[in-house]
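request received
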Amino acid sequence: MSTPIISVTDVRKSYGRGQNRFDALSGVSFDIYEGESVAIVGKSGSGKSTLMHLLALLDAPTSGTVALEGVDTGTLRGSRLNRTRNKTFGFVFQQFFLTGNDTVLENVVLPLKIAGVRPGERRRRAHAALEQLELDDKARNKAANLSCGQKQRAVIARALVNNPRILFADEPTGNLDSATGGVVEDILFGLNREHGITLIVVTHDEDLAARCDRRILIRDGAIVEDSAIEVAA
Ligand code: ADP
Ligand code: MG
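response:
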């Protein structure tokens, strides 16, 4: 079998120290292969966002390893870590929201600016991503003036502009009405199917989870079900 795109081995994450220590993840292990769509589900506070932040290299585990294509990411630091993250991942996170006073275009070019892409090429690629999301007519509008569904499409355009191999989405439809949420879901699964982008979604929407190839259920910081494998009780 090929190398997993992400391999998680006995990952633990604790917040705080001493009496205030809280184990948000208590030893999780699993592999994700390129092109999979994976739902991470579980109650609020179960550790879903903590796990996603570790997978996306936005935070480091207290112990255990997260490997990206066989490379232990614990060895990556500083600008190499930033470059890897920026080049490999796209983020559709609620807390990574748009800058309201900037235009949609300015928001979407941001990852390319960080990557050091030249201005002309930046604009060309941002317009292409906005066209893909049918949002190019809003490129010059202030992000604050978009509807919720348009904002989420702009967030997806920004996530795509770097041609990421992995798209991370944390409750991507949480703030949307069901019709708009459905459109956003269709876009995410279209990217997964047509472009082979690995999709990792945190959700407590079981319908969204059911559309994924695989469902990983977290309870109290541990995996209690993984539809891809038998989990020892
Ligand atoms: P979920 O996304 O499943 O709702 P989280 O991963 O956000 O859960 O949080 C898991 C647990 O870890 C929760 O009990 C939460 O309060 C705690 N937690 C998360 N982040 C921190 C932090 N920075 N400091 C202390 N505790 C935290
Ligand atoms: Mg969360």
